[in-house]
Every structure is written in C-alpha cells, then in structure tokens.
Amino acid sequence: MKRVLFLLTCNLITSYVFSQKTIVEGSNGKSWTIATQSTVYQLSVENDEVRMVHYGHKTQSERQGRPLGAEIPVRGGYVNATPLLEVIFPDGVRDIELTYQSHEIVNVDGYETLKITQTDKYYPLEVVSFITAIPEYDLIEKWVEVRNTGKKGAIKVENLMSGAVFLPKDAYELTHYPGVWGREFTPYTTLLTPGTKTIQVKDFKSYGSSSFMVRPEGETDPYNGKVWFGSIKYSGNWRLDFDKSFNGALQIAGGLNFWDQELNLKPSASFATPHIVFGYTEQGTEGVTHRLTSYIREKLLPPAHRDQIRPVLYNSWYATTFNVNEEHQLALAKTAKEIGVEMFVIDDGWFKGRVNDRAGLGDWTVDTNKFPNGLQPMIEKINALGLDFGIWIEPEMVNPNSDLYRAHPDWVFHFPNRQRHEGRNQLIINLAREDVWQFLYQSFQKLLKENNIKFIKWDMNKAMTDPGFPSAPTDEQRAVRIKYVENLYRLIETLRKEFPEVWFENCSSGGGRIDMAMASRFDFNWVSDNTDPVDRIFIQDSYLTLFPANTMISWVTHEDPHRQNPPLDFKFDVCMAGVLGVGYDITKWTEAEKDIAKERITRYKEIRQTVQNGTPYRLVSPYLNNRSVLQFVNREKSESIVFVYNLAEYPNNMTSETKRSSAVQFRGLEPAAQYTVEGLEGAFSGEYLMKTGIEIPLRGAYKSRIIKIQLRETL
Ligand code: DGJ
Predict the structure, then answer these.
(1) Whether 263 contacts 148, CB under 8 Å
(2) 3-state SS of 587-647?
C-alpha cells in the first residue's frame, strides 16, 4: 500500500510541473517558444513574415537555426512548400501575400494557445493561425481560421489545410496505416524521396485513420529514437502531404482535402479548419503510443463515460443477421446473461421493412412483423434479466425501397442527369440539408425517448458518391462535403447531450471511419468485421499503437470454415485485449462451451480495469514473430496484465534444440518494487522482470495465456 501511495505522489508532482507556462514570448515580442514536457515548437516574425524555426526536442532549440518555412505557406511568390492556403480574390488575383498583424495568448479548453493574426497586404483576407500546447502528452494542435473582411465580393477558397511542420534536413521514413474492409490498420513504412507523398481520403472511408509517424531512415528501435507523428481530427475528406525537398528538409502538411471542394467566403464570413495534432518523442514508436493513447483516453473521449469501465457486450449480427424476432432475441439475452454479459445489443434488422439489405434504411420505426409488441416490452424483459439494451442504426443512409425515399427522393446526394450509385443497395442521405438533419434528429430522439436504450451502434456502410445538392445555391454546392461532416458531428453531439447516459459505438463497415474526431464523440470503435482471431491479432496490434484499448470492441464469433479455427478460449483471449463482446448464436452453445465463456468473462471482469485504462506495451510484434505479446500496466504500476498469443508451433522460428519459449522482458514496472507473477513461485523485482524477463512456457500454435503481474504488498 505504501508503495502505491509513493507512486501516486510521483504522478501528482509530475502533473504539477506540467501545469506551468507553456508559451514563452521572446524579448522582441516577435518570437515564441511553445514548450511541452520534452519538445519545443519555435516560430518568429522576420520581415513581417511568420516563420517556423524548430520543432523537436527541447535541447536542440538552444542553438536557434534559420527558419525552415512559413507558418502558413500560401500560393503566391516562389512556391517552395506545399501551400496550406490557396484562394482566388473577386478580381481574379490568385496570389496571397501575408503580413504579421498581431498575436495573443488565449486559453482553449484549458490549454495556452498562441493566436497569430496575419492579413493580406492588399486584399481583405485575414488569416488567424492557432497553436495549442498540450504539454503532458508532448502534443501541439494547429488550426487556421480565414475571414473575408471586405464589404463586397466573395473570396474563393480552393485549398485550406489545418497546419504544417518542417523537419530539418535528413533522410526520413514514413509509417502509416492504410487498409480496406477486413484488413484495417495495415502498417506500411516507406522512404520519403524528393517529391510529395500524399495520403488522402476522397470518399469518407479510410479503414486506418490519418495517424502517421516519421522517423529518420533506418531507425526501427521500438523504444528509442526520434519520431514526429500526428493525426487529423476529421472524418470526411482529409489529406496529408509529406513534401521532401531535394536539399533534404521535409514538410508535413495536413487537413481538409479540397479535392472536389471549394468554399466561397462572402463578406464577413469566416471558416475554421479542423484541428491537426502533431507530436514528437525520442522514445520510438512506444513513445508515440503512450502519448496518443493517453491523450485520447484521458482528454478526448466523451466525458460522460470517459472514466467508466466498459461493459461486456453481446451483439446479434453474426448470430442472426436480418432475421431478428423477439423470441430469439430473448433467448439470446437469457444465455448472454448466464455467461456474464452486461449489455445486449440488437444489430441490423429490427426496423420497418428491413428483411434484407435491399430495404428499410431510413424508416426508423420498429418492424411490427418482427416485434408485434414494439421494442419497449422486449427491452423490459431484457432489463428484467439484468442486462442493459443497445441498438444498431445507420442514420446517414437510405434504401430506395423505403418510405423515406419514396416521400423524399431529393434528400439523397445526387446530380441531375447522372446515375445514382448504390452500394449495398443504399444511397447517402444529404446531411448538408437542414430538413434532413431535423428528420434524423427527431427520428432518433423519439427512438431514444420511447425505449430504454443505453447503447447505440452507429454504422455507415457506403462510400461517398454523387455528392450533388442541386437545390443549393451554385456557389455553395462544392461545400456540401464540409457541411455534411459539420452536421454529422452536430447530430451526434445533440443526441449525446440529450441522452448522456447512452454509450455510442462508431462503425463504418467495420473500421472505415476511425479517427480522433470520432474519438471525441464516440465511446468505442468497431474496428473490423473481420473477427478471425488470427487476423484480429494483427489488426489489434496496429490499432493499439494508435488508440486506447477501452475504445476497441472485439467479439468472439463463429468459425470461418476457410480458416484455422483456434479453440474458444483463444478467441476469448484475443478479444479480452480490448472491450470484450460475444457475437455467436449462443443459444446453440453446449454446456461445455458456456462454461468456457463464463470462465473467460469472469476472468475479463477481474482484469479489465488494467486492460481498459492501463498503459499499453507491445512487447512482441506479430508482424516480426510468430507470436504476439501485449502488456498493460495500471497507473500505480501495481498490476500488469500480459497477453501471449502463439501463431505457430514454434513461435520464434526456433530450431529443434531450442523448442521452448524464449524470455519476454516486460516494461513499465517499478524497478525496485517486488512483484508476483501468476503461475510462478516467489517474487521478482521489477528490474529483473524488465531486464532478464521470464520465459512463458506456452507451446503450440493458437495457444494463448493471460498472466497477471502484481505488486507484492509490503507488510
Ligand atoms: C456493417 C457492420 O460493420 C456490421 O458489424 C453490421 O453492423 C452490419 N453492417 C449490419 O448491416
């Protein structure tokens, strides 16, 4: 107990240090140092131009170098960087010349923020750039606000990104996480050669988020080495440019993707971009993981449930698909309760006309053929079992075969004289329209008011096509994508505010729309429709590099006849590294299967506090070995949970003489403290466990083990 108190005190002292001043102004009043715990971002004004000087480790800033580039690179003059801002003034002039006007330090969400105002030398264009320091996570956040300060004529914005940083001359490698349905978050590393490498989303589907890491070429040590990293807080069209000049410097610019997009800023109108997050660490990819995942878990997740333990879920999708009815759902719920589930979620298929994926989307009232008594009587029975109830919705879509589409065919995105492109037999509803927003808000407000729903799974299954809004004024038509995303956020936020006790899960055909903007509005992500435990180990390894475990829902599901079928307890162990769910038709389970489920769920409840809120360590990567080892350590360093998954008979490609598991060195423990290791006699110092490590005698393919390491109480 004493030890725990000591460790807690250390944490408090560190937080006190963090709360000190983060933005320091130079003596000339025209230069700034924005400091986080171990990084600085420096900028200065020279000849009335705001320039970035340095971004990296604190100590490197002591020798001030030459500015690396403009804080807001624009189209105009010599174009030696990727512009963040490109406009056309009413008289057709396309170049911008920005000059510094003023600055102030403001408070944004409790953090010091440098606000710098620049204006065009001649035209009525004001450009305000914001840089917030988030010191305890070594992050900065940037965004830009532009305003037409003129009295007549609109300024056409052809490109406006959120922010950029310049890195000094070096050879760099980029790691990013693209994906596709079923193979979300696939890590790729590539050398950045002179030219621009762009990663982008044009259709609102990304399957891997905009998170990236840039490291000096050849640096692969997971625990040491410089890494610049970041992510865009946006869920629509986003874009990141890695612009490598021939002389070696690198510019990273990101924000909205103005592909098929433009804004016309009328007099007095302004527009603020989404935020881009940048970070820097010298602790390798592990340093990135710790900063990003703690920031998301501690600051970004919706406050209503931020600190709450996530429930064990049941989801009906793989058990029933569209074939849902009260009797079977109740039978599933009864078994779910028996095995220890806490939240029962009915997926697709419950609403009017939804017999298959060709009908029903848009008609958000219960299908009385399937639920003659409505939903609430069934929910009451499920509640009486001791389970909370959740439900699936897909607000942004409509099937042409629906009452909604028949009544409002103009409510979908479309172009006149052009084919409407269906995907999964559905079209995208034009959320840029206020009447559509009102309809959706009222439909889901009613659903939540009339039924005791505690969980919403919010799906989005079709990529953006035909983004036409023919009845909108012509000069607003190319802003529909932006408006859509604004209204999407407003819809989620309004419903959350009105129903604060409801949990929200983000889904888009699996993990098609996972990002930091969604992380601030949803409690969890459905990471992939691919629930094969072996594939899932890879997807989860990447996901947990960027997002916290308490946002990662994983279900134990049916066998795929074309794949290896690991035993049920292995499947459970894979899903227990996040928020555990079950997706089987559990009414068909044998008593023996139910016993395994009960035992694993009981075990999960015992360890989930540390898994969901602990610091993650990826000890053995499945991408480099035939084994995956994950570790979570709680804040007090008094408990650690280790997951070991073997993917082959001899996990480390060992020879026949050494067919045994090699030692695993743990991380994040207190070196001087004594720990017990589940399954082993005696106690070990934290230092021993981290330096020498222990062998985990787990043999054979598709075998798994969960090990608890606990601080030994001092007497
Ligand atoms: C796609 C999701 O990823 C699945 O989990 C499921 O909810 C289906 N949609 C339902 O249509």
Answers:
(1) no
(2) HHCCHHHHHHHHHHHHHHHHHHHHHHHCEEEEEECCCCCCEEEEEEECCCCCEEEEEEEEC
pLDDT, one tens digit per residue, over 602-643 is: 999 999 999 999 999 999 999 998 999 999 999 999 999 999
Give nearest CA residue, ligand 1 atom 2. 509
CA distance 33 to 561: 59
Distance CA 285, CA 188 (A): 14
Both tokens of 652, joined, read 């480390």
Q: What lines the ligand 1 site, CB under 6 Å?
A: 317, 347-348, 392, 459, 461, 507, 509-510, 526, 529
Task: Place 660 in a pLDDT band, splitting at 50, 70 and 90.
Answer: low
Does residue 66 surpass a pLDDT of 90?
no
Measured CA distances, 125 to 76, 152, 180 (Å): 14, 12, 40
**11 falls in which pLDDT band (50, 70, 90)?**
very low
CA of 528 to the centre of ligand 1 (A): 10
48 is catalytic: no
Q: Is 363 a residue of the active site?
A: no
| Per-residue model confidence as pLDDT tens digits over 495-510 | 999 999 999 999 999 9
Q: Ligand 1 pocket test: which of 183, 527, 529, 531 has the largest number of ligand atoms within 8 Å of its C-beta?
A: 529
Given 138, 243, 459, 541, which residue is catalytic?
Answer: 459
For residue 48, give the DSSP letter.
Answer: T
24-59 per-position pLDDT tens digit: 999 888 999 999 999 999 999 999 999 999 999 988
What span, in angstroms and rounded, lies between the C-alpha atoms of 272 and 607? 43
Nearest Cα to Cα of residue 386 among 345, 329, 341: 341
- Cα(224)–Cα(189) distance, integer angstroms: 17
β-strands 238-244, 250-256 pairing: antiparallel
| Tokens at 433, concatenated | 């329209």
Atom number of ligand 1 nearest to Cα 508: 3
What is the C-alpha end-to-end distance of the chain, expressed in Å? 9
* Residue 150: its H or E element: none
